[in-house]
Structure to design on (340 residues):
């Protein structure tokens, strides 16, 4: 399989788990790493939160050796604060820092951070240079296509990043106002790749191993980043890695459910408060059963989940149902699983 390097760090696979606020916490990252992701990225971390030493902010960076290397994503709009926050992130032992120039949620845009920086290239440049100077670990920048669909915004920001000493850029080619509507315009990834000498990571709308291969082939990007499709299907990384080596692998239903159960129990341990953990896991479990027969009934029960015992019982009962009679035939007919 093609090896991929960011700065001095060589990754075992050119596949990256995208930063997802509210999702890519420690238990989730450990799971996708085990499934073959070459790099995992934290949820976005506020530079101001780091300056004020908020416990909640530091919790987002809690890490374990098994998930290494870990990239921590920072958002902020003040160059001095971003540099200081980056210094503190490096001191926690993170192997890489990513600067968020892609988030388009109002709360972040209002602070001049995230994709607001794509509208202020001079400020973005100051931030890149200040952070670069502050740390010795590799630095990456994640961006959208810009504030219009032309892709010129990404071209400009990517060049600025490269000139400022950034080690790689990730491009999610939707505009800052597009949220998740429409399609990611992969031709913009190709344009950015052809203009840069540093590695370019392509992101947006990869749902299957075949999509990942197609993005690598058609854009020439050096690595792929996967977000939504991996939330309920961490083994997607295993299947992409297999396809990159010319193999097709299919999961077994029992393995999928074992992973779901482990994610549920690890998350409960991580959050410590059983009710809060269960509330968070209600939608997460829903992602795991997406597309399976009877999944809406499962989801209906999952949204009332409030204890560990209830959660485990729900997962077991649904797995049993899927192994029987008509349900069993439907699952096998979908072609998604090798066997039970
Ligand atoms: C729930 C959710 C949370 C996200 N949080 C972040 C974030 O913290 N930082 C960031 O740069 N992008 C964030 N994104 C965007 C993703 O990293 C990614 O760019 C986007 O989902 C496109 O990739 P996909 O089509 O593979 O999902 C988030 C997306 C989702 C769905």
């Amino acid at each position: 399989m093609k090896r991929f390097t960011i700065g001095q760090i060589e990754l075992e696979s050119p596949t990256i788990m995208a930063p997802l606020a509210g999702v890519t916490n420690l238990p989730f990252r450990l799971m996708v790493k085990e499934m073959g992701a070459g790099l995992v990225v934290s949820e976005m971390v506020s530079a101001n939160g780091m300056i004020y030493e908020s416990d909640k902010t530091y919790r987002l960076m809690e890490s374990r050796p098994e998930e290494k290397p870990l990239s921590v994503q920072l958002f902020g709009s003040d160059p001095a604060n971003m540099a200081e926050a980056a210094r503190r992130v490096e001191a926690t032992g993170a192997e890489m820092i990513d600067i968020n120039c892609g988030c388009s949620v109002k709360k972040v845009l209002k602070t001049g951070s995230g994709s607001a920086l794509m509208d202020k290239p001079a400020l973005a440049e100051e931030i890149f240079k200040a952070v670069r100077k502050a740390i010795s670990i590799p630095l990456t920048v994640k961006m959208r296509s810009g504030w219009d669909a032309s892709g010129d915004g990404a071209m400009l920001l990517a060049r600025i990043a490269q000139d400022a000493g950034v080690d790689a850029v990730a491009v999610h080619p939707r505009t800052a106002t597009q949220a998740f509507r429409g399609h990611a315009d992969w031709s913009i990834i190709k344009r950015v790749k052809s203009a840069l000498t540093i590695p370019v990571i392509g992101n947006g709308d990869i749902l299957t191993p075949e999509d990942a291969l197609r993005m690598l082939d058609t854009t020439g990007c050096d690595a792929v980043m996967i977000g939504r499709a991996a939330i309920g299907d961490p083994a997607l990384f295993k299947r992409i890695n297999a396809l990159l080596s010319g193999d097709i692998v299919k999961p077994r239903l029992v393995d999928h459910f074992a992973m779901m159960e482990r994610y549920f129990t690890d998350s409960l341990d991580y959050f410590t408060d059983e009710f809060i953990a269960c509330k968070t896991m209600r939608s997460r479990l829903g992602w795991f059963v997406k597309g399976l027969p009877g999944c809406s009934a499962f989801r209906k029960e999952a949204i009332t989940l409030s204890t560990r015992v209830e959660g485990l019982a729900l997962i077991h009962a649904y797995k049993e149902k899927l192994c029987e009679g008509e349900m069993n035939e439907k699952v096998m007919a979908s072609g998604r699983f090798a066997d039970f």
User: Anything to note?
Assistant: The chain has a mean pLDDT of 95. The pocket of flavin mononucleotide is lined by residues 18-23, 43-44, 73, 100, 102-103, 142, 172, 203-206, 226-229 (CB under 6 Å). The longest strand covers residues 39-46. Residues 170 and 286 are 28 Å apart (CA to CA).
